[in-house]
Write a sequence for this structure.
């Protein structure tokens, strides 16, 4: 008899249908029998009825330890508890611990099933912002998407922390089939806001354009986030070589990756990173920082990882790669091969299923 798995899922409004960790559940649903899995989807917003909203607020007040845990988090947990009492899963997987884990561990004995979670934020984020990290001790296992984070979480779950990489939809995020796209125009792509080093990015762009004004920069940053950042973005926005994108479709996002020459991603910390894995899957060489989980998702044959704040290192790496078409092609092939081999969702789903079985059998 196949084990019954219940997923607590979340889709973020800034991610397309081909992006994000929820793709794991989509992939695993093709592996598991239809009657062996169910989902509770966390939906943004509050209960419409005042009485229900009041109950949810009271239930979720004390467990709140993460700034990412909201009223809809408690609602999703309550739905998970009711579903579990009716369906009796062998294992519940909370796919975004920072967003979704509050009251559920208190029901562990009553539900009589194993509960595991996936953490997406680095240990530094947890040390700085999470009020009750010791609550993780109630889990049966924890998946982390950056190998460096194992040591931090082992203090709460010794021997029960497992590193499994974040995957990417390698079928959708792929190099262009257009052989005419010889990328004579050098384009550097940057994406995101969370834990990004925008100060370094701004200085790097200024220095690169001062030496080679033919290089272009495509910045993927939502309009609402541009006014919340520092004034240096105003300074680089004056350059006609800097292009801004927000609220684009999956296909437009893929096209930007496909027409880019390289990913330029100054970053302060990370575990996994959607922009990184999607760029790699589209065959982009990477210039980023040697922090967090970057080494889990890159190899030296397609990525240069620099120290935080190394402006000259970024500038030199961009200019040198821009002038070497042969090296661009070489790194592009290596990046795509890495994504297809190690980051495709089927591979990640099978590794996750191994953890499920191991935890259930304990």
């Amino acid at each position: 008899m196949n084990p019954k798995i219940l997923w607590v899922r979340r889709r973020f409004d800034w991610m397309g249908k081909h992006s994000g960790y929820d793709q794991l559940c989509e992939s695993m649903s093709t592996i598991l029998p239809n009657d062996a899995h169910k989902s509770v989807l966390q939906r943004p917003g509050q209960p419409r009825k005042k009485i229900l909203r009041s109950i949810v607020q009271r239930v979720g007040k004390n467990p709140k330890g993460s700034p990412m845990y909201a009223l809809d988090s408690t609602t999703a947990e309550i739905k998970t508890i009711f579903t579990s009492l009716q369906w009796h899963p062998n294992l519940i997987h909370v796919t975004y611990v920072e967003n979704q884990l509050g009251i559920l561990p208190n029901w562990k004995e009553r539900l009589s099933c194993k509960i595991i979670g996936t953490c997406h934020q680095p240990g530094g984020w947890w040390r700085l912002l999470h009020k009750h990290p010791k609550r993780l001790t109630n889990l049966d296992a924890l998946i982390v998407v950056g190998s460096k984070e194992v040591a931090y979480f082992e203090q709460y779950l010794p021997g029960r922390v497992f590193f499994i990489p974040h995957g990417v939809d390698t079928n959708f995020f792929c190099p262009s089939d257009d052989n005419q796209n010889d990328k004579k125009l050098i384009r550097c792509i940057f994406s995101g806001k969370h834990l990004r080093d925008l100060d370094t990015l701004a200085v790097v762009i200024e220095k690169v354009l001062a030496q080679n004004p033919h290089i272009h920069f495509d910045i993927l940053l939502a309009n609402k986030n541009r006014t919340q950042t520092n004034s240096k973005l105003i300074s680089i926005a004056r350059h006609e070589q800097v292009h801004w994108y927000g609220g684009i479709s999956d296909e437009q996002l893929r096209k930007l990756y496909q027409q880019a020459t390289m990913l330029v991603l100054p970053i302060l910390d990370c575990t996994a990173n959607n922009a990184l894995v999607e760029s790699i899957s589209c065959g982009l060489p990477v210039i980023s920082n040697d922090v967090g989980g970057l080494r889990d998702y890159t190899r030296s044959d397609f990525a240069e990882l620099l120290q935080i704040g190394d402006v000259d290192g970024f500038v030199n790496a961009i200019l040198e790669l821009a002038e070497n078409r042969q090296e661009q092609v070489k790194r592009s092939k290596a990046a795509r091969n890495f994504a297809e081999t190690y980051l495709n969702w089927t591979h990640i789903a099978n590794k996750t299923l191994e953890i499920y079985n191991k935890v259930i059998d304990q």
The chain is about 40% helix and 15% strand. The two ends are 17 Å apart (CA to CA). The mean pLDDT is 91.
